[in-house]
Structure formats: structure tokens, C-alpha cells
Amino acid sequence: MTPGHQDAHPPLGRAELPIDTVSLARYLIGKILVRELPEGFVRGRIVEIEAYVIGDAAGHAYRGMTRHNRSLFLERGYAYVYLAYGISYMLNVSSETAGIGAGVLIRALEPLEGVPIMKLNRASARLRDLARGPGRLTAALRVDRRLDGLDLCREGPLWLGRDDDEPGEIGQSKRIGIVRGADRLLRFYLLGNAFVSGPRSLNVR
DNA sequence: AGTGCGATTGACT
DNA sequence: GTCAATCGCACTA
Description:
By secondary structure, this protein is an alpha+beta fold. 11% of the residues lie in helices and 27% in strands. The chain contains three helices and eight strands; from the N terminus they run αβββββααβββ. It has helices spanning 21-28, 115-121, 134-140, and strands spanning 32-37, 40-52, 79-84, 88-94, 103-113, 158-161, 170-173, 187-190. Strands 1, 2, 3, 4, 5, 6, 7 and 8 form an eight-stranded antiparallel β-sheet that branches. The longest helix has 8 residues, at 21-28. It starts with 20 loop residues before the first helix and ends in a 15-residue tail after the last strand. It binds a DNA duplex through residues 50, 52, 58-60, 63, 66-68, 82-88, 90, 92, 105, 107, 133-136, 139, 175-179.
């Protein structure tokens, strides 16, 4: 909680990020998402991620690059933020080499630091629900389109932080809330973690 | 210029 | 379990 505490979770180096989308999704489970706000730092452990792979009909890059989705075509480790249903912002990480459109969607965090700030950002919420869901976590961390295109591999308003602890066993399931490509097992989550979203039936081995 | 529709959430029966 | 809110974008014309 002291200033500088975020140095316990320095940014992941781009070189250590797997270049393949599915590998990156698995790699980011257990890593730390760090947000710097005027009031202080907010940190959470990534406990759930979905992969939107090359040529994926469910992915926003499927129909080619536009002004809206161009961040997906950056080399791995950049933020792609968009508004879903006119209500919730979704935070993705670009996941392939430059020019190839693919990404991973961060779907849930286990709050580690800055819980009071997160509660203020989300009108009334129990700890378990603060960042359990892709739209909830962006609200809790005050992430919106202004952060689109941000390099998440360096310190700044938002970055991916290192954590050397073993994350635990990773479960795999279908992705949530999509129609095309719905049968593919491209959702990854920490087994048994209470901060994972989705129905219980999806979260068992 | 108009239309349809989501990688969701929170409120409610 | 159901359902409305809300809006930027892709697509059609």
C-alpha cells in the first residue's frame, strides 16, 4: 500500500511473452494487472482470460483492420479497449506479431490492492464481485477507450506486472457470451478461484 | 443516412 | 430464471 509498492510487480518484458495467442492467454493467468490512478495504485491478479485467435470468427479482427480495432494488430502486449453493448468496456491484450490481428480478453481479477478505490469506482459491490467479469474489472480500474493502444509492457497508467508465484492449476472451457466459434475451448481460468466469472458448470474440470 | 447488433451487467419475477 | 439499458460500429443503400 505504500508508494512504490508496485515495484514488487515490475512490467513483464515483451520478449518473455509467448507469441502465440493461446500460449499468451495461459501465460497471463496469475500475472498482475496494475493500474495507476491519481488516488493510488490498484492491483489485481488475472484469474480468467479468453483467447481470440488468428482467423477467429468471434474475434473483432476477423473482418480486417479498421480504425476501431487497429490495436489488435499491434505486436503483442498492447491494450485493445472497446465498448460492449454500449455499457461495458472490455480490456484485451494484443497477442501476435505486428500486422496480425488477435488478442486475449481479460475477464476477471482477484483484487490485491486498492480495494477502497475499486469500490468507489463501482457503486456498491462486494469484494467478490468487484472485478469478477470483463466489464466489472474495467469499471473497477477505470479503464476506457482512452487507454486503447497503450503499451502494457512498461510502467504507465496501466501495465502487466510480474508475479513469480505459481498460479495454480488452470482450467479450460468454452468462451462466454459469443455465438460464432462458440464450441472452441479458448477460455482459461484458475481452478477453484472464487473471483472467476461464469456459471459454476463451466468452471469445473 | 438508416438499421441491426453485440466478447455485459444489474434489476427483477 | 428473464429482460431492458445503451451506443459505436459495420453494413446496406
